[in-house]
Amino acid sequence: MNNLDPNILSGFRLLDIIDILLVAIIIYYIYSLIKGTIAVNILIGVGLFYGIYLVVKQMEMRLLTEIFGGFISVGSIALIVVFQQEIRRFLIHIGKNISLRRKKFFWSFLNNKKTSQIDNGEQIKPIIDACRSMSRSRTGALLVFSRYFDEEYYQSSGEYIDAPVSKRLLESIFFKNSPLHDGAAVIVDFRVMTASCVLPLSDSEDLPPQFGLRHRAAIGVTEVSEAVAVIVSEETGEISFAKDGNINMNLSPEELEKILKEEL
């Protein structure tokens, strides 16, 4: 048996190992973002398409090689178009993590944590009271909490309000006979900016079949933005919370209050 040629490993550096590990982490991170979505099937199709191109090129089938080669030559642009939501979600995750660390570092010097929690709790109380009331009456509701107000994104599909959050306002918006009850209410800095907003639906294939439009919209908007969402089910009165495309279901008002204090 031949011994391993030492020249193979002679040019292998520590940076090469780090390079391989970083690429593996990026691939895993991207896969975790697209797992369970239709993007996985698209990626498999792209892989098969490229594999067929390599086969026909190797077999010197000139016509098919030219046809497949024409598509592959613009493949990078096509991938950006097809995977625009996944790319947006990937960049948002990176930016959000950096932003959160920066904010935590900054506020640790300026704010007293206990005082901040007390003030936050007073602002959250009307939201919790409204969710508790709507849960008991089985009034369907979708609340989206965004860190900033994107007028082009939210206002174009909803009614502009810009009013302080209150229990009566939220109950009035989602009252079943209200013209604004369909869609989402977008809250920024504890102000209801718009109501009756149309949100992007999640295309995840792993969602339970009993999920309605509110749950799919809540998951969808948290997949493509930094927003978090609260859902009150019209059928069961169950309260749920969505963040980063994931959802926590069957929450009590007390559990929801604890989550919102941490998130807002």
TrEMBL record:
<dbReference type="InterPro" id="IPR045585">
    <property type="entry name" value="CdaA_N"/>
</dbReference>
<dbReference type="GO" id="GO:0006171">
    <property type="term" value="P:cAMP biosynthetic process"/>
</dbReference>
<keyword id="KW-1003">Cell membrane</keyword>
<feature type="transmembrane region" description="Helical">
    <location>
        <begin position="12"/>
        <end position="31"/>
    </location>
</feature>
<feature type="transmembrane region" description="Helical">
    <location>
        <begin position="63"/>
        <end position="83"/>
    </location>
</feature>
<keyword id="KW-0472">Membrane</keyword>
<comment type="similarity">
    <text>Belongs to the adenylate cyclase family. DacA/CdaA subfamily.</text>
</comment>
<keyword id="KW-0812">Transmembrane</keyword>
<keyword id="KW-0067">ATP-binding</keyword>
<protein>
    <recommendedName>
        <fullName>Diadenylate cyclase</fullName>
        <ecNumber>2.7.7.85</ecNumber>
    </recommendedName>
</protein>
<dbReference type="InterPro" id="IPR003390">
    <property type="entry name" value="DNA_integrity_scan_DisA_N"/>
</dbReference>
<feature type="transmembrane region" description="Helical">
    <location>
        <begin position="37"/>
        <end position="56"/>
    </location>
</feature>
<dbReference type="Pfam" id="PF02457">
    <property type="entry name" value="DAC"/>
</dbReference>
<dbReference type="GO" id="GO:0005524">
    <property type="term" value="F:ATP binding"/>
</dbReference>
<dbReference type="GO" id="GO:0106408">
    <property type="term" value="F:diadenylate cyclase activity"/>
</dbReference>
<dbReference type="GO" id="GO:0004016">
    <property type="term" value="F:adenylate cyclase activity"/>
</dbReference>
<keyword id="KW-0547">Nucleotide-binding</keyword>
<comment type="subunit">
    <text>Probably a homodimer.</text>
</comment>
<feature type="domain" description="DAC">
    <location>
        <begin position="84"/>
        <end position="253"/>
    </location>
</feature>
<dbReference type="InterPro" id="IPR034701">
    <property type="entry name" value="CdaA"/>
</dbReference>
<comment type="function">
    <text>Catalyzes the condensation of 2 ATP molecules into cyclic di-AMP (c-di-AMP), a second messenger used to regulate differing processes in different bacteria.</text>
</comment>
<dbReference type="InterPro" id="IPR014046">
    <property type="entry name" value="C-di-AMP_synthase"/>
</dbReference>
<keyword id="KW-1133">Transmembrane helix</keyword>
<dbReference type="Pfam" id="PF19293">
    <property type="entry name" value="CdaA_N"/>
</dbReference>
<keyword id="KW-0808">Transferase</keyword>
<dbReference type="InterPro" id="IPR036888">
    <property type="entry name" value="DNA_integrity_DisA_N_sf"/>
</dbReference>
<dbReference type="InterPro" id="IPR050338">
    <property type="entry name" value="DisA"/>
</dbReference>
<keyword id="KW-0548">Nucleotidyltransferase</keyword>
